Structures are given as C-alpha cells and as structure tokens.
Amino acid sequence: MSPLKEGKSELRKVIKNILEQMTTEETNLQTEAVFQKVIDSKWFQNSKRLSVYVSTTGEIQTDSIIKKALEMGKDVFIPQFTKGSTDMEMVQIPNLDSFDFLPSTLWGIRQPDPTWKWKSYHLTGPLDLVISPGVAFTSSGFRCGHGKGYYDRFFSAHSSNFPSETPLKIGLALREQIVESIPVSETDVQLDQVIFDEESNQFK
User: Which positions does UniProt annotate for substrate binding (predicted)?
Assistant: First the structure.
C-alpha cells in the first residue's frame, strides 16, 4: 500500500472510531444547525438542479435538505450505485413520495431500484450544486471519502459532459469529521466549501 493510501486508511479508522462514540442526539443537533446554514445560503436558494447524498449513519443527515429542495420546486438528484460498477449515477427524484419509500441497498444506502428507471442528470443538463458526503474534511475543502472514488470520478464525468458548466461543490460535515490535514493526490477534487456547526469545534 502506498504512503498516500495508508495515510487515508489510517485517517478513516480514526474518524470511524470517533463517530461510533457519538450519540444520535448529538448528530441530530449538528444536523439541525447545518440544515439551517444550507437553506439560508444564497447558493442553495439560487440552485435549480442539485445533487444531494442520501445520508446513512455517521453523517450529517440530509433528508430535510432533500425534502426542502423538492418543496421549493428544485430538480433534485441522488446517487445510484450498481454492484460491480466503479461509476455512480445521479438520478432525479420524481416526487416526495418516491423519496420517502426508497429501499436500503448497497452499504445500507437508500437508493432507487435500477428497474425504476429514474432519469439521469446528464440527459437533461448540468447540475449547479453538488452536496457531497465524506469521512473527513479540512475546513479548506479537502475531502477523504470511503476509498472507492465515486465522487471524484463523478466530478470528472460532469466536467467531460458539460465542460463549460461547473457545479458548486459543498461538503457537509459533523465537527468530529473536521481535521487539520488530509493526504491528497492529483485526482482528489477540492470542494468549494465545507459546512459544519463550528460550536466548540476542536481539531482531532
């Protein structure tokens, strides 16, 4: 294993251990603070076509953001993974009811069944906002994911599909996921901003 991969792997273990100690109540409190920051932001209010990750444990919860965006009439896209594929598709949520009944599939992530044929973003145009998950973040926007490279490849694919249209890239983090530095390679995409609840923030 290269020093870079080893460094990221060690960082993931450290953050995973920290997150496992967190209570649901603490996660929910930070989620509420981050939700307010997101919906109050100009970039969220002005977005028309956005992608939002569907949260699982150990992350800022995104259901309220997705539902708010749908209520505001925005086109909302969520990730869809296929077993054995290295690519991640972004597919449009048809309506609120469809989101409420998403099944939990690969890695416990809720996503539409492929047979539902939800429409991919690239058939209708570029995204103007991508809200991304991660394991760890720096406050300057560097991100360490789960190691499969889905989001970095997605950002690259979006650039290939729509060279003149670059979405704003936003990360959502729990305070415990903010670190001073992350080992990065040339394929790691830096986010434009990381949103977290700064109250009592301590670098870990």
Answer: 54, 59
